[in-house]
Design brief:
Elements (H helix, E strand, L loop, with lengths): L6 H13 L4 H13 L1 H17 L9 H13 L11
The structure holds zinc ion.
Length: 87
């Protein structure tokens, strides 16, 4: 039995997974991880939403650590990150 990937591996694989670029073995491992990890199911749903919004995959998946750093920076800035720009 092939071990399921960790969350970190999942984040690294998710763009390939969404593009259907992973091998059947890897796809099965990712599916197995998704089956027992609700955090990664949420992450995958967000990635799918992002893909729909952008019409393409982002060049790099956003890791949880990068996301935390980004959110911390956003909160410190006065740009109101997350709210739509005012016209
Ligand atoms: Zn996970």
């Amino acid at each position: 039995m092939v071990p399921a990937p960790t969350c970190q591996e999942f984040v690294e694989l998710v763009t390939d997974y969404l593009e259907g670029a992973t091998s059947p073995a890897v796809t099965a491992r990712v599916d197995a991880h998704l089956g027992r990890c609700s955090d990664c199911r949420t992450y995958l749903a967000q990635m799918r939403h992002t893909v729909r919004a952008l019409g393409a995959l982002p060049p790099e998946p956003v890791s949880p650590a990068a996301e935390r750093d980004l959110l911390r920076l956003c909160r410190r800035s006065r740009l109101g990150c997350g709210s739509p720009p005012r016209a």
